[in-house]
Specification:
mainly alpha; transmembrane helix; transmembrane; membrane; 50% helix; rod-shaped; 7 helices; 136 residues
Length: 136
């Protein structure tokens, strides 16, 4: 039986952002963006996809607000806005090809680009219709 999506490792264009370290915790382990979002009760992939769809400045501001909600575990924790500016550079520009549930989305549908097979089929139909009209 396959694992439910929330229990699988998502392979997406958001992985680099989600695995990026925010800072080192008191026990010496790095705190990743994914762990930080999960600690706050935020779906990491949904939030990363939302941030990726925003302009860089807006994404950095939104992420900084979220990071400020984290309890500071050490006095030298980085400034939330500086950390957010560094992290949003890891997001894919123009949005993510990954849906919040981890499935890869057809980017051509999301961006409004029409599949080339559609044009080929349309041209064939128009030629057939034109030939039929011409022969009648």
């Amino acid at each position: 039986m396959p694992l439910r999506p929330e229990y699988t490792l998502h392979q997406s264009d958001l992985t680099e952002f989600l695995c990026a370290p925010l800072w080192e915790e008191e026990n010496g382990s790095p705190l990743s963006v994914l762990s930080a979002l999960a600690r706050l009760g935020i779906d990491p992939w949904a939030e990363a996809a939302r941030l990726a769809a925003l302009p860089r400045g807006a994404a950095a501001s939104a992420l900084a607000v979220i990071l400020r909600r984290l309890p500071a575990q050490q006095p030298e924790a980085p400034d939330a806005l500086a950390a957010a500016d560094r992290l949003v550079k890891l997001l894919p520009e123009g949005g993510s090809a990954t849906a919040p549930n981890g499935e890869v989305v057809d980017r051509s549908r999301r961006t409004g680009i029409v599949n080339p097979w559609f044009f080929l089929l349309l041209m064939a139909a128009l030629i057939a219709w034109g030939m039929n009209s011409f022969l009648s």
